[in-house]
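Lab notebook page, bench 4
Experiment: in silico fold of construct C2
Operator: M.H.
Input chain length: 191 residues
Purpose: comparison with the prior construct
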Amino acid sequence: MTITPLRYFLLACFALGCASLAHADIIVTPTFDPSNQAAPPDTTDYEGNFYDFSSTFPPDPITIGTFDFTIPTGDQIVGATISGTFGDVNIPTTAVTDLFVDDGNIQVAACDDPSAPCAVGGSPVSWSYTFTDAQFGDLAGGSIDFTAIQNSFAAVVVGAPTLDIQTVPEPSSIFTLAGGLLAFAACRRRK
């Protein structure tokens, strides 16, 4: 059986279409802001400075860090989750605090009760937030800030925060696959 140029083209369309259906996960950790961390700065967890009410309350919002990432060209975001822990391996609790992304517009976690395990427990407490479809546009720029508002004395401690973004190719890639399959079927039928 000889392969004609049309069949090469159809086979290429089919292969490109199959490859375009791949699902990508972009998992990133933030670049922490060392200027407001306890010394020496940690690179995997955020351990803030101790707040003792000696300055005005509430303290200014704390910049924990920034998540930087790249969405592949032609992909669209279909899901995103940010997660971490209150407390870390060094300090298992945190001050009463609220965590935000996108300049304080999206609250992703809260440790609001001073008697809750996140504030007094003996081990880190997990938290997770799933972005809504309407919030995917906030992630399209390739960077999102991560901040905290501290609501009590002590230090803000956040362990191993990660941002997981799921992307898929735009629908036009699927049309390439469908076009290749239809053309291949038509070619087979002609014989």
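Observations: The chain has a mean pLDDT of 83. The chain is about 20% helix and 35% strand.
Next step: discuss at group meeting.
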